[in-house]
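Researcher: I'm comparing several assemblies side by side, and this is the next one on my list. It has 462 residues spread over two chains. Same procedure as the others: predict the full complex and return the structure.
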Amino acid sequence: MSPTRNVDFATLTMKEALDLAILIEEEAYDRYSELADQLTQHDTPDAAHFFRLMMANEAKHRAAFAEHRDVLFADAACGVTRAMIFDVEAPDYDEARAFMTLRAALETALRAEQKAHAFFVAALARVTDPTVRTLFEELAAEEIAHQELVRRELAKAPPDAAIPTDAFADEPVGE
Amino acid sequence: MSVAAKDFKSDLKPIWCPGCGDFGVLQAIYRSLAAIGRPAHEIAFISGIGCSSRIPGYTTAYGFNSVHGRALPIAQGLKLARPELLVLAAGGDGDGFSIGGGHVPHAVRRNDDLTYIVMDNQTYGLTKGQLSPTAPQGLHTVTSAYGSLELPVNPLLYVLAYGAVFVAQGSPADIAGLTEMIEAAIRYPGFAFVNVQSPCVTYGDESQQIKVHKAVMKKLADLGHDPTSRSQALERAQSYGSELLTGVYFCDPDPPPTLGARVRERQEKMMAAAKPRAQILDTFVQH
């Protein structure tokens, strides 16, 4: 399942690549926001708090790309739309669980960063514009750096409780 | 006027369990409505009762979270009264194929221009995990502690057998594919049915979760399926419950007239043959 629709990486320009990067950050921001709301509603404050931190990170990245884009292309019209991307860096909806631990939330973010890295690596195989190639190489490297940050946080996170978190939720009846 | 997916997102935050398949379905609906491009005030979203039936409230379209199993009769009435509206109906497998099961064949045979999205999770999640009509034989639930003895309803065969003109199946494991499917269903001029395998994260079977879908789902398009062939669709639909095939099962290449079109044609004929107003009034006057 491709995370993009109607994006031709072979002809992608620097302006379109920056627009794409901005939209990817926006999508991730929106998804972390949704997951944080879900977990707040379901009494899972630690994971919700962490997802709000991730929102702040994605907003920061988006602002940096927007600034770069502004310098290079000012008010030129955006060449790509949100309809063209599907969960590039956004964590999957099914990652969230009521009562998930901080560790599980960190692992969710790690998988999202790994997914984003895989996206840029796959795109690089098709990109022809040298400036876009440089940008995507930087973005792929950044995703690796983000993974390292999450891994460091994981190392500091308390271990999960001996009782699994889903023991607090109703479960299907087994034999 | 261009519309974006975010324009269809209401201020109400979904209260589904985190990880529920319905979040992906809602996202696909937002995106497909944005692709259609009609503003929210030209869209009406009707549902029955259940977890998934909360979905109209999470959109900015006109919505009616109605009575259990009655989304389709209300949607049909609305479409007849306000044919200019884009009308969607949604609900769960219990709402559609148990409580509302009697309404589905009539919506199919009337063929009004509606899109019916069923979020099929094989359980009654809102009431804490009872056996639902699409639950597989042998499934353990609170009402089938030793395993279900019943064969499941097959929603795809059900609607195809009654002559449905557009039938598709998707999963929130592929939001992009589901978005395209819902958009195609909305654009189809007639009764369009989309069955979405939307797992219940709390009461659903482990084998029906999104991670499993991602591993096992197969696209009909990759299998050489011809979506214009009803017989192929009937054959493929028989594997419901044993394998997860996604895509358009059947799309009648020659759409029959909708109920709305037939009603308008009848109205025009009757209007043409009607006596002038004065003449009608005159028949009530005693001479």
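Model: For your comparison table: The mean pLDDT of chain A is 92.
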